[in-house]
Amino acid sequence: MRFLYTILICIVVTYSGFAQEDISQINIPKEDAPKHRYFYTGKDYGSEAIFNPLSLMINGGYDITQLQSVSNRFRDHQFARMAKVVFKNLTHPVESINRYGWPLFLRTEFLPISFKKDEMQWIPNYQQHLFGCGMLYTKMKEWYEDKNVPVPWLFSSVTLMSQHLLNEIMESGPNEGWSVDEISDIYIFDLGGILLFSFDSVNEFFSKTLVLSDWSLQASVTLPEGRVNAGQYFALKWKLPFTEDYSFFYRFGMGALFGLSKNLNPEDAVSFGVGFRSKHLVELNHVARQRTIETSWHAGAFYDKNNSLMASLVFSGVKEFFCMADVYPGIIKYKDFSPGIWAVFGLNGNVTMGVSTRYAIGLGFDRIKRDE
User: Fold this and answer.
1) Which helix or strand (DSSP H or E) is residue 89 part of?
2) DSSP secondary structure string for all residues of 47-85
3) Residues in a beta bridge with 214
4) With contact defined as beta carbons under 8 Å apart, do 225 and 362 qualify?
5) How far is CA 164 from CA 130, 185, 219, in A?
6) Around 190, how many Cα atoms within 13 Å sit in the side-chain half-sphere?
7) What is the pLDDT along the chain (372 residues), one digit of tens a residue?
8) In sequence order, what are the residues at sequence separation of 6 or more whose Cβ sits closer than 8 angstroms to the Cβ of residue 237?
9) Which residues are CB-neighbours of 201 under 8 A, at least 6 positions away?
10) Measured on CA atoms in the order 331, 333, 338, 344, is the torsion positive or negative?
11) Which helix (H) or strand (E) holds 207?
12) Phi, psi dihedrals of residue 38, rounded to the nearest 5°
C-alpha cells in the first residue's frame, strides 16, 4: 500500500508541475522554448527510427536467447514456472543472498574488485543494467515526451522495469531455485541506473562526452517456427585527443567489441571492432546458481548517421550466428516507405532473414536445420 501511495503522490506532484508550467508559459510559442533531448531526437532513419516500447521490450527481454543454451522459440519456454522462480527470489532477497553468501555476492555481483572469469558478473551489471538501463530510461522518457504522453518518467520507468523483469524471467529456468541475479540486476543496478540518469549532468556526460547510443537489433518474429530475432546492444564513442575525426569505439551487449570510429563528415561515421562474443552459460554452482560465460571470437563493421546505426556486418565464432547483416530504415527507400532488412547465417546451414519498419514489429522467415 505504501508503494501505491508513493506512486499516487508522484503522479499528483508531476501533474501539478505540468499545470504550473502551462500557466507560466501562456502565450509563449512552443518553438521558443524547445526541450533539450539527450538520446532520442525523433530521427526517421537508422536504429532510432525503430525505437519504441515494443522493440525495447523484445530486444531487452529476449536478449539472452542469443546464447546457444537458450532457445529463441516462443513455445520452448515455461513462462509461468520461470516467473514463479524469479518472483520467489525478488520477494525473499535476504534469504537468497544468505544462501549464496554475502562475501561472494559482494565480490561477484557488486564490487568491481575481482577479475576472475567466474567472478565478473559485476561487468554486465554495470554495463547493461546501470549505464544501459539508465540511458534507455532517459531515451524512453524522451520518446514518451515526443508522443505527448503524460508523466513520461513514470511510463518510462514502468517500461524499463517490465523489460528487465522479462529479461530475468528468460534467464531463469523453470526448475531453478535460489538466485541473486534478479536481486542485483533489478533492485540495485536497474533502479540505480534510473536514479543516476535522472540527473542532467549524467545525461550530458554520456550523450556528449562518451556518446553512448542504443544500437540494438531489428526486433522481429520469424515464421514458421515462431522464433525471435532480438538483441540489446550499446555503442560508445569517446573522441581521441588531438584529433577531430577518430574516436575510441566500444560496442557491448552479448559480448564486446573494441576498435576505432572515424567521422566521414559531420553526420556520417564508420566503426570497426574486434573482441569476443558470449557463446553459452556454464553452471558453476547449481544450488545458488552461480554462472560464467564461455566466449568465442567476434568482429564487426558499422555505419551510423548522427549516432543512429544505419548498417552493420558482424561475424563471430558462434556457429548459429556466424554472420549477421543489418540494414536499418533510411537506406532502402521507395517514396515515403523505407524498410530495414536483416539476415543471420549459421555455419550449420541455418538461415534467418526479415524486414522491419517504423510502424510495427519486424517479420521474418527462418530455415532451421537443427532440432532444439
Assistant:
1) helix 79-91
2) GGGG-SHHHHHHHHHTGGGGSTTS--BGGG--HHHHHHH
3) 234
4) no
5) 12, 8, 16
6) 20
7) 333 333 333 333 333 333 333 333 333 334 444 578 999 999 999 999 999 999 999 999 999 999 888 889 988 999 999 999 899 999 999 998 998 888 988 888 888 887 777 777 889 999 999 999 999 999 999 999 999 999 999 999 999 999 999 999 998 876 677 888 899 999 999 999 999 999 999 999 999 999 999 999 999 999 998 999 999 999 999 999 989 899 999 999 999 999 999 999 999 999 999 999 988 776 666 555 666 678 899 999 999 999 999 999 999 999 889 999 999 999 999 888 999 999 999 998 889 999 999 888 999 999 877 554
8) 210, 211, 213, 247, 248, 249, 250, 261, 269, 271, 307
9) none
10) negative
11) none
12) -105, -50
- Nine-digit cell at 251? 560496442
Torsion from C-alpha of 129, 130, 132, 133, nearest 10 degrees:
70
Contact 258, 264 (CB under 8 A): no
CB 329 within 8 A of CB 357: yes
Say if residues 332 and 341 touch (Cβ distance below 8 Å). yes
**DSSP state for residue 31 in the 8-state scheme:** G
CA torsion, ordered 123, 129, 132, 134, to nearest 10 deg: -130
Q: Is the pTM of this model over 0.85?
A: yes
Cis status, amide bond into 224, omega within 30 of 0: yes
Could you tell me where the beta strands, DSSP code E, fall in the chain?
212-214, 220-223, 227-229, 234-239, 246-253, 255-263, 268-285, 290-305, 308-316, 323-327, 340-345, 351-356, 362-367
**324 is written with which cell numbers?**
549477421
CA-closest candidate to residue 361, choices 38, 61, 37 = 61
Assigned C-alpha cell, 166: 522479462
Angstrom distance (rounded) from CA 271 to CA 127: 20
C-alpha cell at position 316: 563471430
